Amino acid sequence: MKDLTAIDLLRAISFKPRVLIVGGAVRDKLLQRSCKDIDLIVEKKNGSRQVANQVYEFFPKQCSKPFNAGKTYPVWKLRFKDDVEFDGIRYKCHGVELDISDTQSEAHIFASLEEDIKRRDFTINMLVLELRTNQILDPSTKALSDLKQKFLDSHPEVSPEEMLKSDPARILRLYRFSAVFDFSISTGLLKKAQELAPLIKEISSERIRDEIIKVSNAGRLSDFISLCKDNGVLPHFLPEIQSLSSQIQEGSDHSLFTHTLRTIENSPSNLKIQLAALMHALPSSQIQKTLHRLKFDNKLIASVCKVIRNYLRPLESKDWPIRTVRMFIRDIGEELEMCLELCEAYILSDQKQREGLIENPIPALREKITRAKRVPIIQGPLIDGREIMHELGIGPGRRVGTLMTKLIEWEDEQVENNITITREDALTYLKSLL
Hints:
- The protein has 21 helices and 11 strands.
- It is an alpha+beta fold.
């Protein structure tokens, strides 16, 4: 039996006003894609609050309490914290977020469904699912056709210029949709997006960041960056990456930009590794500066920078003994897998141009890592600095750090020789150094 979703749950609830699902959730339903964000519109003034409260009253334990997040018009938000059982039927709702608003015009006043649809970005996001009848409605008259033809366009009664100017972030969203869905863009809309590209500088860093996150998680960052460059948009939000197109990669006949795209293509669909692939050809100081400008959090920035600092080290791993592998694992920590993935993506991107000139050491290194991990790897030695001072009767200083380094190296050598060691063994070794 097919799993029932949050959309099925909403259809099972008897809402008093007319409630419709609009936008991406309907589009994704028709494309048979999963969706965690559902936009509801209510054809009643102040009806959105009524509907939000009704959902919460049904499922107070499984839902967050609704709150109004709208600045110019009420938008009630709530999130399902768990799956839901309703009338004896279980619905998969965990993590689904609802945005509920009244139908409104571009001027953010209560209006008809038709007016609400006109204020939206692309026709594929103008489809409506009526909950009472389960009927798909197409108020724009061309959304179903555009979706079938894999075509991005604006509402037939709204000019592309008007639509894009009302929210310049739609320029980036246009290329994201084209990249993620592999949809073509109408000539008129494409031309206006190119003309209005300078407006991107008016978009907040957070919104630019969010577009990059979404396209990275979809694994289509390379296509997105390529589209933005080809259409003159990239310099307006990622000039650092644009600059790579004028730099030739050492030892090849193609640009660092082309190399970067290929590295991204060979990277997994994961935000951190896609970002690392995007940034890896930039100077280290510029990487951190760029990610800070885009308002990525400090933890993510530190992780991405650590991967980029270390991703080339595995190229020299062919002759690494197990103790060196353990040292590498200890140095990289949580970023180990991403470091291996970026190195492999880097190698594969070059092999397309220089077949056979670069050997891929990653499979062999993974085997060594498995062997190295048979004995747990901890960040420090079996005996910490405080214990060393106490047991050996020495004071704080460089000598303690030197002894800890030697102890770690000794421990790794014992592991390499399949020798099991204890704290007492470690202490005996340290005393032998005095």
